[in-house]
Amino acid sequence: MASIDYFECEDCGFKWKDQGPLFFFLNENDEIEEYILLRTAMDLDKDSPISGDIVETYCVNCDRKIKIYVISFIKKPLNEDEAIDFIEKLANDNKISNANLKPYIRESDLKDDGFIVDFSRNFHGLKKYFCPSCNALIPKYILSRNACPKCGGIIKVVDGMCLDKL
Question: Secondary structure of the chain: what % helix, strand, coil (to 5)?
Fold first, then answer.
């Protein structure tokens, strides 16, 4: 179910908008298009040679939002390495909105061997994630009941809306 949630830290005032689930695909001009999963958008990526998920997080060291593009579908004749090279070329050619950050794009980069997602959608896993720009430790997700990435304070939901029911 697509939703937009707004979070705010009670201690430092850090604000975050979580929208999702977010996905990407390559359009007919070989440009990345991002979309939120709504019933009306379910077949947008059906003809795309490369598509996948987008994880949005934050690096306190860089003080910026980071988008992580996770390739989850590749059409033959492309293999994973060719798809990664293609996405990296798009980033280098400034065809990805955050081209100054090299996105993580291997699906295995975001998988944990032993992970648990609790009822509040908090992610607990063994793997650590690092900023693709400065290599600082970053959270995989910023959600309610997680610590604020800036100060370690408490993040609370301050507003939100459901966009579509599947």
Answer: 10, 35, 50
